[in-house]
Amino acid sequence: MQNEPLTVRRRDLLSLIGTVAGGAAMYHTMMALGFASESRYTGPIRLEGDAKGASVLILGAGLAGMTAALELREAGYKVLMLEFNDRPGGRNWTLRGGDIFVELGGVKQTCAFEKDLHLDPGPWRIPYHHRALLDYCKRLGVALEPFIQVNHNAYLHASGAFGGAPQRIRAVKADFQGQVSELLAKVANQGELDQAVSVKDKEILLLALKSWGALDHNYKYREGLIASAYRGYAKPPGGGLSASPLPSEPVALSDILKSQLWRYFWNFATYELQTTMFQPVGGMDKIGKAFARELGELIRYNAKVTEIWQNDCGVTVTYVDAKSPAQLQKVTADWCLCTIPLSILSQLPINVGAAMKAAIDAVPYGASVKVGLQFKRRFWEEDDAIYGGISYTDLPIREIGYPNTGYNKCGRGILLGAYLFESANAFEFTAMPPDERVARAVEFGAVIHPQYRTEFENGIAVAWHRVPFTLGCSGQWSEEARKQHYRNLCRIDGRILLAGEHVSALPAWQEGAILSSLDAIARLHERVIKP
Predict the structure, then answer these.
(1) How far lies 154's CA from each of 255, 390, 440, in Å?
(2) Helix ranges, 431-490 (H)
(3) Which candidate, 20, 59, 33, places its Cα nearest to that of 481?
């Protein structure tokens, strides 16, 4: 059997290569569905021309709303913002010790984290190509530090494989890559690629496979120091008399395929998740707070919008103080930029045209849950040598995120103990009370890190469908809905227009919110100066 010729059709070969480079394929699929796209930011917006003293009411002080407020004020507009929360940022949010969060239904959580420890329940990373967000961070003086998206020493875990033991990412990736490279080298050496590549290209391909897949001189991926230099050693190189390393034993390709651990490789390959990535020093809400410092009294907090009405002359918005909602208040402006999530806006009285109303009603919001866990010590560093990055599992918690700051310090630390995004498990965790979400995160996490059982101290859990100001994580466009409704959602309807991550090809990303805002105010400004 071993010496039988191996024949592979070109289509099958491309399919096999596609499996290895699955991230790129995944990204193109996401683009087609409107789930991902490249940022088109080319520099600061210029709103030139006379604003004629026009007033703009902005609903929501998330990043979309505050971006618009900053630029419109600079261009000479009279700006007022209404924000539901008592803080800026919207989903740009950080929880620290002492913070109180009351979710839908009235259940209250008080964050018990130690000082200087925090959880970002919303966005937690910034890709290097999100140029608009990075530019505003620079302009507003928000310090950034690296976010470790890929840590090869973190874990991949499948409950039904390898006796339930987690596997190091580096080992699984090296073994999969090496054995696929061996297969491709075998196909190339048997002449099955002659119609697809030239003789010279085949020689180059074999050299590339040898390097990429850690193959030996016979183009084999096998136990030895060559493979161990990629996957890790049974005994690492040392010093003195015990300096010689011992090779580790690769996992068979069939075992990797059956385990389905290869499914997680797209987290390292897709454009949106490629390194380098960043995070603000001290928490994601540093960005929202920086915007708010610039805007000052333009933001009216605790303002819960109840109605939005327009006529030929302007827009009138009714709102109440979220903390004492007995008395209705009204404010009027020439124009209204609404950044309220569609999950909320679809429930409010608003007199827009039928096409925009249908678009507002057409977009459901995805479920997401994050659980932050505080531990007595940073055992993932001390015991497991994991500094930053993410471990992936098929358990309901899906991901464990390691802190990307405070490395090698003594004392307590925070893990993102669960990150569930647009999955059945996300709905399951959403239905639980917060203390049960935390308990389940500890229970499942202990399968990967047994230290949980003795080191856990406290936790907090945010289920986005139970967050009153969004009722969901982010706009979840289907291909059909985007085709039918997206342009209508973007249009200026009378004196009302919308912005936010839901009005972008980058849903769930802060970059999408900012770009949609810049696009909206550019079109609004053109309307104002050229009526």
Answers:
(1) 19, 6, 21
(2) 434-448, 452-455, 479-490
(3) 33
Q: What confidence score (pLDDT) does residue 531 get?
A: 67
The two structure tokens encoding residue 187: 């196909």
Q: Kindly state the percentage of the chain with pLDDT values over 90.
A: 85
- CA distances to 38, 116, 531 from 343, in Å: 25, 33, 32
d(CA 426, CA 311): 42
**Phi-psi region at 259: left, alpha or beta (left = phi > 0; alpha = psi -120 to 50):** alpha
Average pLDDT of span 322-349:
94
Q: If you write DSSP's letter for every residue of 243-264 in order, what string do you get?
A: ---EEPPPPPHHHHHHHTGGGG
> Which amino acid, 385?
A
CA dihedral 391, 395, 398, 404 (to 10 degrees): -30
Cis peptide before 276 (omega within 30 of 0): yes
Which of the four pLDDT bands, split at 50, 70 and 90, describes residue 39?
A: low
Is residue 271 within 8 Å of residue 38, measured between CB atoms?
yes
pLDDT in tens, 156-181: 999 999 999 999 999 999 999 999 99
Q: What is the pLDDT of residues 268-299, one digit of tens each?
A: 889 999 989 999 999 999 999 999 999 999 99
The closest of 120, 229, 253 to 176, measured between CA atoms, is 253
Determine the pLDDT at residue 441: 98
How many helical (H) and strand (E) elements, i.e. helices and strands, does the chain have? 18, 24
Q: What is the pTM of this model?
A: 0.90
Q: Does residue 401 carry a pLDDT above 80?
A: yes
Q: What is the mean pLDDT of the chain?
A: 92
Contact present, 137 and 127 (Cβ < 8 Å):
no
Burial of 53 from C-beta contacts in 10 A (0-12 / 13-18 / 19+): exposed
Can you tell me the distance from the alpha carbon of 382 to that of 390, in angstroms, rounded to the nearest whole number?
A: 16
Listing from the earlier edge strand, what are the strands of the sheet with 413-421? 167-168, 155-157, 389-393, 399-402, 413-421, 368-375, 456-463
Nearest C-alpha neighbor of 388 from the set 126, 173, 146, 92: 146
Element (H, E) at 15: helix 10-20
Q: Are 94 and 284 in contact (CB under 8 A)?
A: yes
* Long-range CB contact pairs, 114-117, < 8 A, 24+: 114/374, 114/411, 114/412, 116/406, 117/374, 117/412, 117/413, 117/414
Which residues face 246 on adjacent strands?
A: 235
SS3 content of the chain, % helix, strand, coil (to 5): 40, 20, 40
Between CA 213 and CA 205 the distance in angstroms is 11
